[in-house]
Design a protein that fits this description.
63% helix; alpha+beta; 8 helices; single chain; 5-stranded mixed β-sheet; 196 residues
């Protein structure tokens, strides 16, 4: 069955588009008008349908010819549709406990209910406590920047826990530095007193 474009079905949309262009004077000026007309070309239903069919055919071919590539394609597809930490946890559990989302690799230890970001063997590891997915979240201080890349997955409560853990760690680090400075100054002061 071939789907063809029926021009009358698009007439109301075209009319609304022309009205919006007439109403919005900012669209009439140079670059803004060019940006509007360039972005207004969206893929048609037929183009999207053809791409979806092509992808499904490639997926079926990879399933037979290259099972590893097939698994990676299915994982990429699941990750592209992921919108929550709970779903990401499910995907990780289905794929051996490790998953990379937005360039950030998270490791899930199902037995101990730990979700880890970064190196857990060296550096300062911060524990944010139990999150909405039922896992305790541990991350290396060096990986705090990576959390911003995956923040959209966390619930507001999870974000609050993570931010509180970071703040607590910052305060502990300041106190540690203060104690070390005082010790250094105390030793230095004692040496100076002995010299006099």
């Amino acid at each position: 069955m071939k789907v063809e474009k029926i021009s009358s079905a698009y007439a109301p949309v075209d009319a609304v588009s022309r009205i919006n262009v007439k109403i919005d004077p900012s669209v009439q000026s140079g670059e803004k008008r060019d940006a509007y007309t360039a972005s207004s070309h969206m893929a048609s239903f037929e183009e999207k349908f053809a791409l979806a069919q092509e992808y499904q055919e490639m997926l079926e071919r990879m399933k037979k010819e290259d099972p590893g590539r097939y698994q990676q394609m299915k994982l990429d597809e699941a990750l592209s549709e992921c919108k929550s930490l709970g779903r990401l946890t499910e995907i990780a559990e289905e794929n051996g406990g490790s998953v990379t989302y937005n360039g950030v690799t998270l490791n899930f230890d199902r037995k101990n209910k730990k979700m880890c970001l970064g190196n857990m063997d060296s550096g300062d590891v911060i524990n944010a406590g139990m999150l909405s997915n039922g896992y305790c979240f541990y991350f290396n201080r060096e990986n705090i920047g990576d959390i911003a890349k995956i923040l959209d997955l966390f619930s507001p409560e999870d974000v609050n826990k993570i931010m509180a853990a970071i703040e607590t760690d910052n305060m502990a680090d300041k106190m540690k530095n203060q104690v070390e400075d005082e010790k250094a100054n105390g030793v230095q002061g004692a040496e100076t007193a002995e010299e006099h």
